[in-house]
Amino acid sequence: MRGLPVVDISSENLCHVAREAGSFYLQHPLFPAERCGFAIEAARVFFSMRAEAKRALGIEGSPHFRGYSEMKNERDWREQIHFGREGAAVAGAEGYPRLAG
Fold first, then answer.
1. Cα angle: 21, vertex 18, 13; to 5 degrees
2. What is the enclosing helix (H) or strand (E) of 74?
3. Which residue of 34, 55, 79, 99 has the fewest CB atoms within a 10 Å radius of its CB?
4. How far apart are CA 83 and CA 21, in angstroms?
5. What sign does the dihedral 15-18-19-21 (CA atoms) show?
6. Are 94 and 64 in contact (CB under 8 A)?
């Protein structure tokens, strides 16, 4: 069994690897293993919190689709948290263009 390819974010091969492999590990100097480990541990702590605490950060409270959400249906059963800068809303934006906020 082959492992996933490792690609540097500045590589010109990024698009090619994405098309050919579909999945890959991405390297970037701002994300050393120690920092990634910290993020994974923070995620473990967050997702082990009580449901009420997680829902207090619900995506419904963000005009830009940021925050906690969960999917529970016949095809998908997961929790997730969406991060991003919360800038000013784009005037008149509807649907996905609001993600730019």
1. 105
2. none
3. 34
4. 26
5. positive
6. no
**Cα torsion through 8, 86, 65, 70, rounded to 10:** 80
**What's the CA gap between 11 and 67, in Å, rounded?**
31
Contact call for residues 69 and 59 (beta carbons, < 8 A) = yes
What's the confidence (pLDDT) of residue 62?
Answer: 82
- Asked if the model's pLDDT at residue 88 lies above 80, the reply is no
The pLDDT tens digits of the residues spanning 12-64 come to: 777 888 888 888 888 887 888 898 899 899 999 999 999 999 999 999 888 77
Rounded (10°) CA dihedral 8, 11, 13, 17: 20
3-state secondary structure of 97: helix
**What pairing do the DSSP bridges indicate for beta strands 67-72 and 77-82?**
antiparallel
Over the stretch 89-98, which tens digit does the pLDDT of each residue have?
677 777 767 6
Alpha helices in 1-101 (DSSP H): 14-21, 33-47, 51-55
